[in-house]
Specification:
The chain is mainly alpha-helical. 54% of the residues lie in helices and 11% in strands. The chain has a 3-stranded antiparallel sheet with strand order 1-2-3, with no helix packed on it. It has a 3-stranded mixed sheet with strand order 5-7-6. The radius of gyration is 28 Å and the shape is flat. 29% of the residues are buried. It holds the Pfam family UVB_sens_C. Keywords: Membrane, Transmembrane, Transmembrane helix.
């Protein structure tokens, strides 16, 4: 006699027993651990969630997808209502309407949307990864940009959700979820369009209500995200808390503190309790814009505080300018940015900011990185806007200048 158990799961930590089969020389007995309904429900669910769910994705995947699907649903309903209004406006169903007039107005709508997407990519394309949450929200608020910003930030979020190198599976299942939301939204939209036909006030009230819900659902979706990558603002929040308490905040705690709206406040971040030191950092300073006095100061810094460093930091009028060496690695850029943040923290507390910050980096930087890793942060690189300007330098102690 032999007894074999059947277990289902993508990893040893996420297994569930589905059946037990026993065999003798004269009989075979099969006992299923799942009911028929449970098995059918599981197969349906597999079409919409990644393999190994929930262990194959991050904890914020489910709440984000729920709110994202709800905002998508409202979008498709609004689309049906707006399409009906647009067709009515261009004269569909009226004898006076011409085909060329209707075609031109439809073309103009699509053309303006595509033009807006191109202009947006030109100005903000390199900034999407570093501020994925903010631009995801902006993209959904401004649907003309959705094809660019939403698609680019969605790729960053898919990588975030992936715990088992299953980004392709997550993306495919997200497509299935969106298809279902589209079908439901179109059906509801057609019903509502039929009910409100000939009642423009009802159409406006319904459209505005759906728009408000769409914005709220997008806000909630973005707020659910707890990204583990380090960008400028998260670095600033983490470092300031560490310098005050010696402890590192978790991604979930930082998620509640960071901005998601593109509103740049010069002095204070959320709640007025945390200063936005990252806004005082100029990463990748342009050397040709420096004056003679700046060069002389850099010469002294290069021969003293930054002898072995692959970056130079220059403080000017409350801003810290970071000169990035042309061969600097991703981890070096993170170190340079954190060093600049330390200087920004010391500007109001010490006159010897370079000396104090150098001591802090020597004593605390390694500890800070170790605590970041143990809290679940990814410390391999800094997600920052593209650095356009890099430098290469040499200095002489005789004439104290950088060439």
């Amino acid at each position: 006699m032999i007894t074999v158990e059947e277990w289902r799961g993508s990893s040893s930590a996420k297994l569930s027993k589905t059946a037990t089969i026993s065999a003798t020389s004269s009989s075979l007995h099969l006992h299923r651990s799942e009911s028929r309904f449970t098995e059918i429900w599981r197969k349906i669910l597999e079409a919409f969630v990644p393999e190994g769910f929930p262990g194959s994705v991050t904890p914020d995947y489910v709440p984000f997808q729920i709110w994202d699907s709800l905002q998508g649903l409202s979008t498709y309903i609004r689309s049906m209502l707006s399409t009906q209004a647009l067709l009515s406006a261009i004269g569909v169903g009226e004898k006076s309407a011409t085909v060329i007039g209707a075609t031109f107005q439809w073309f103009l709508r699509d053309f303006m949307g595509m033009l807006g997407g191109i202009i947006f990519t030109f100005y903000q394309g390199s900034n999407l990864d570093s501020n994925a949450k903010m631009w995801r929200l902006v993209a959904d608020f401004m649907n003309d940009l959705a094809g660019v910003a939403s698609g680019a930030t969605r790729a960053a979020l898919t990588q975030h959700f992936s715990l088992q190198n299953n980004a392709a599976d997550i993306s495919a299942k997200e497509g299935s979820q969106e298809t279902v939301a589209t079908m439901i939204g179109m059906a509801l939209g057609m019903i509502l369009a039929h009910i409100t036909r000939g009642h423009p006030l009802a159409v406006w009230i319904l459209f505005l209500s759906l728009t408000l819900f769409h914005m709220f659902a997008n806000y909630m979706a973005v707020r659910c995200l707890s990204l583990t990558t380090l960008n400028n603002e998260r670095c600033s929040l983490l470092l300031q808390h560490f310098m005050e308490t010696g402890q590192v905040l978790s991604p979930q705690q930082i998620s509640r503190m960071e901005h998601v709206f593109p509103i740049w406040v010069s002095s204070w971040s959320s709640g007025g309790k945390t200063k936005s030191y990252h806004k005082h950092i100029r990463l990748g300073a342009k050397v040709s814009s420096l004056k003679h006095a700046d060069m002389m100061e850099l010469s002294g810094l290069a021969s003293s505080h930054y002898k072995k460093a692959t970056y130079l930091l220059l403080e000017k009028k409350g801003y810290v300018h970071v000169l990035i060496h042309k061969h600097l690695t991703a981890s070096d850029i993170l170190q340079a940015f954190i060093h600049a943040l330390v200087i920004a923290n010391y500007l109001d507390k010490s006159k010897a900011v370079h000396t104090e910050s150098r001591l802090w980096m020597d004593e605390k930087y390694t500890v800070f990185l170790a605590k970041l890793k143990s809290a679940g942060w990814t410390t391999e690189r800094l997600l920052s806007p593209s650095i356009a300007w890099r430098s290469d330098w040499s200095h002489s102690t005789e004439d104290e200048k950088i060439s």
